[in-house]
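[SOLVED] Need 3D model of a four-part complex

Original post:
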Amino acid sequence: MRKVTMADVARLANVSKSTVSQYLNKRYEYMSEETKKRIAEAIEQLQYRPNVIARSLKQKSTATIGVIVFNILHMLTTQVLRAIEDMCQQHDFHVIVCNTDDDPEKERKYIDMLWAKQVDGFIIFPTGKNVDLYKKMIEARLPLVFVDRTVEGIDVDAVLLDNEGAVQLAVRYLVKQGYKHIGLVAPPFASHVIPRTERIHAFRHVLRAANLPIEEEWIVTEQVKRIPERLDALLRQNKLPEAIFAINDLTLMEVLTFVKKHQLSIPTDVALISIDDVPFASVYTPSLTTIAQPAFDMGKKAAERLFMQMDGETRPQMFRLAPKLIERDSAKKRGEKNEW
Amino acid sequence: MRKVTMADVARLANVSKSTVSQYLNKRYEYMSEETKKRIAEAIEQLQYRPNVIARSLKQKSTATIGVIVFNILHMLTTQVLRAIEDMCQQHDFHVIVCNTDDDPEKERKYIDMLWAKQVDGFIIFPTGKNVDLYKKMIEARLPLVFVDRTVEGIDVDAVLLDNEGAVQLAVRYLVKQGYKHIGLVAPPFASHVIPRTERIHAFRHVLRAANLPIEEEWIVTEQVKRIPERLDALLRQNKLPEAIFAINDLTLMEVLTFVKKHQLSIPTDVALISIDDVPFASVYTPSLTTIAQPAFDMGKKAAERLFMQMDGETRPQMFRLAPKLIERDSAKKRGEKNEW
DNA sequence: TTGTACGCGTTATCAG
DNA sequence: CTGATAACGCGTACAA
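Solution:
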């Protein structure tokens, strides 16, 4: 059961390989109907499938891109990926997906391997720790788009959330609803994690601009699993802020764990808003007010830019996509009667 | 800036291509230190990266597998995928991911394209509608594993949830907690959707075995978006069952929407259990009792079987992985005081 | 309109 | 220990 090749088809159809090739590439302008039919029959009879690998070798294009993410289990990642895959589908491209778990070593290995595999481009959620490699990719003119994070000193297309805008949306909303004592909950500060850094930074910025007090105790940046106990401590001291802003879905979960444990009432005891529109936001009681990331748009944009790069030279650009406030009940006006 | 090839390295190192090739493949047994060094230097200087595509052509292996799923956005899919990717990472394999949206046409196209791309194997969540193609794949000895669903008449490795067991776990638990009037909520019946079919079927079976009444009105199989209204109707007629079994996460969401709308109290007004351990199960109030699918194990098993097939012949086998009851508060004993 | 011959970048074989 | 040379399967001038 040897693999059938073009030569086999040619032999059976009694023509040469090139004729078969022309046929496959629809260059039938000068081909007799008779020949076409014979080739078609031979292909059908032999169940011939062109070997794209061989073609790639010649044409220097694999119609495949590599997408390197931290963890496909994160909702944002999944959605971005889905959007990328949809775009690729339209261009008859395929997507190779790799998880780095935010480990620079894994990232390096994946980039090397996919590069060797001749992928036509990369969309990466960068760990930020392989600056030399990123530079080499750019030097080699490998189409490349960063998503979610950028890396200082790397001049490349990047598609990010407008984090400052997201924080503004959240904090201003809380303020408008009458909350003045606002806390933030985030994982530990890490300068290379752009969204986190920007959000925490913007938080201070926005509070200051609104003339609100910045209480350091209310800026909880902590290992995710230890967030509930940090909040516990605040509660014990009776120092819980009136409202909590969770900077992403992971931290939101911890806040909810805390809230549930103490049977606090939202938003009466503490109001709640978060970035990432979690799927259960509307069925939770009370329904959760969130700032949604335009995940699909981000994926779409990233893919678009990548295809533009593959089509020809473009200048690197940074795109900040707009977040969206989805108002529900968890941060309703202070003192206002809640209907749930 | 032409791509640098092995020939360039050979020229610079003053050896032949074959020697470079040997070097790369670590066949240095009879190679002089001197030569080794020269080659190493040339490679470094030229920043040479072997072209895996060319190698694949020769070796008939791409170290790449195709994974074809309905929709990467589903939690089960994401988790299975993550497990597959982890396994592949260990074998230095890559994963191409494709979404079919349960459309047989898309599925056919993807299989054809990936086949042409010479992937070394397939893991598929099959739509079930391309029987001829599946058969051709098997005929061609293409390593293949089905996940989540099987297809009648196709003799191939398949990794599935033990659906009957999952339903038993759910219903027996409800019964043990004192519930007798149990309803089921599911998307519309469709014979090729194995999990759904098996769960609905098993539900009747288990009820019968437990000598419980099978009330047709309580078996709600309906378009997901219309589920709440179906439940509304039951409620209006005062015919709501004591407990509801949602056969997956999607339907669970609809039940929760219904519950929230009417401000019903769980489990007092209606108890709730579902298949799929949604991420918010423990922070919801009350926390949700669920039947968890062993998604990671499923992915791992599928990948293992695929690698076994690639290693040599194996006999097709069906694997039924065990679900797990995660007891929380949404289906606590009828009449028992709840502490949330 | 079709066939010949060569190139794509690598590996395998076999001399030397 | 190293180097020619022939594949691998396909695309494409160029020749016929």
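Edit: Residues 15-19, 22, 29-32, 35, 54, 56-60 of chain B lie near DNA strand D (CB under 10 Å from a C1').
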